[in-house]
């Protein structure tokens, strides 16, 4: 799967080898949005340094070790945060429109 130029490899990478060329992988620092996503789905950011130079995400080995309750709580917390963010943005937009229209 490919999203915004990143490939997402939907399996664990226990051996830290590139799924395409077989070379060693290096973990990359994550951006803020990637950290937010990895709270719900623990994805790790990798880059193939010596071979094909591809960057991609793969599931953390820790994800398979989590209980179903912890996975569910993480997903519910993420959904709640997204809903709260949407509500706050809508209030800001509505307040801005009301101020601009003179109410």
What does this structure look like?
Helix content is 47%, strand content 22%. With 103 residues, it is α+β, with helices and mostly antiparallel strands. It has a five-stranded mixed sheet. α1 crosses α3 (68-101).
Based on the model shown, name its key terms:
47% helix; five-stranded mixed β-sheet; 103 residues; alpha+beta; elongated; 22% strand
Rg, alpha carbons: 19 Å
The strand order across the widest sheet is 1-2-5-4-3
Helical proportion, percent range: 40-55%
Provide the structure class: alpha+beta
Shape type: elongated
The amount of beta strand, in percent, is 15-25%
Q: How many helices does DSSP assign?
A: 3
Spans of at least 5 consecutive residues whose pLDDT stays below 50 are none
Main sheet specs: 5 strands, mixed
Terminal CA distance reads 48 Å
How many extended strands?
5
Total domain count: 2
The H/E string reads EEEHEEHH
| Residue-averaged pLDDT | 77
How are the SSEs placed, and which strands pair?
Blueprint: E1 2-3, E2 6-12, E3 25-27, H1 32-40, E4 43-48, E5 55-59, H2 61-65, H3 68-101
Parallel strand pairs: 2-5
Antiparallel strand pairs: 1-2, 3-4, 4-5
Helix pairs in contact: 1-3
């Amino acid at each position: 799967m490919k999203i915004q130029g990143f490939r997402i490899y939907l399996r664990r990478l226990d051996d830290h080898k590139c799924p395409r060329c077989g070379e060693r992988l290096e973990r990359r620092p994550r951006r803020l949005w990637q950290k937010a996503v990895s709270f719900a789905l623990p994805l790790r950011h990798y880059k193939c340094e010596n071979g094909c130079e591809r960057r991609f995400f793969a599931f953390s080995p820790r994800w398979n070790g989590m209980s179903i309750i912890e996975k569910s709580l993480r997903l519910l917390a993420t959904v709640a945060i997204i809903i709260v963010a949407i509500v706050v943005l809508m209030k800001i937009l509505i307040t801005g429109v009301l101020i601009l229209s003179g109410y």
